[in-house]
Amino acid sequence: MKKQMITMIAALMSLCLTACGSDPVNINVSLADNTATSIAAETTSSETTAAVTETAAAAAQTDASAAAQTDSKHTTAAQTAAQTTAAPKAECPYSADDLVGEWEMPGTFGTRNHSLTVRKDGTAIMRYAAGGTRSGKVRIDTEEHPDGSKSYWYSLCDADSTAWISFACDKQPVNQISSGQDGGMHFIRISLEDVAAEKMNNLTFLMKSLSGSAVDLATNANETMTADGQTYTLVTDERFAINSLGKAAFERLLEETVTGAEYTRWKGILNESFRVSEPDGSSYILTSDAHGYQSFETGSGVTITDQTDTSFTATTKDANQIDGRGVAHFVFDGINWTIESYEFQ
Fold first, then answer.
1. Which residues are bridge partners to 126 per DSSP?
2. In what helix (H) or strand (E) does residue 188 lie, and over which residues does it extend?
3. What tens digit of pLDDT does each residue of 232-264 get?
4. Which residues in 102-124 are b (16+ Cβ under 10 Å) and which e?
5. Is the overall model pTM greater than 0.90, yes or no?
6. What DSSP element (H or E) covers 266?
7. What are the C-alpha distances in Å from 78 to residues 70, 82, 86?
């Protein structure tokens, strides 16, 4: 019975495959004595090829998909590893803005007079004690050390980017700078109020000295000369040893203190107040035509108003009984802060 059933099923399968237009299929059926059935099917060559091709394509698609997923995983893993292990780039904590403002070397007139101005655009103007100036741009330079550490420098550079002096970057905010070059210059930061008070004091000194009595100026009363009916006394004040004892130092001080019409006026007074001996070039100052002078009282400091990048007004906090309170209008002439005009109220 079982054998008949299997034979009928085989016959029906053959008819179905033929009716569907498929290639003929040979089915061999054999029955073992223990009724176990073994069925072997042989397909034609075209079916075999189609099956292999279909299977290979599916396998290739599966492999490609798996490879893409693997590559994606590897790429993501590599990116994650790079992001995790890459150290963030350290930024320099210093900038040219740290130096914007006014600087000077400690001391007194005649032995100091090195000063520095750094503008908001990074331009720096160095004014030397013996006269003359040098300009440049502030740049931050980095020095790398074998142990991996770094040091930074504020460098003043020429137009071709050559550094001509450098100051070590240190604590912030920056209130002092020192160089290992140019004789080891050391500058301290000063305020605009300090600048104004110093210039006012310079002008007071000039007015006293040129008042015909050489007030607060060291002279040798035993060394005099006569010219144009006036008496002139030898100047020996050591504060002027940096240029020469006398007129040359006064001229430089005048240039650093006033500008415009005031400079022209005071330059004329200075020329009238000095005589230079022909043999040795010594300077003699007028001491026979004494008259009054005005004085800026800066003991308690000054108040700054009307401030711009190129000008400001300074008013003394103190006043004296004769002149009252001094007011000076300052301008930056490209090199220095100088008094353009002044009055006493």
1. 116, 134
2. strand 186-190
3. 999 988 776 655 678 888 998 899 999 999 999
4. bbbeeeebbeebbbbbbbeebeb
5. no
6. helix 260-273
7. 12, 6, 12
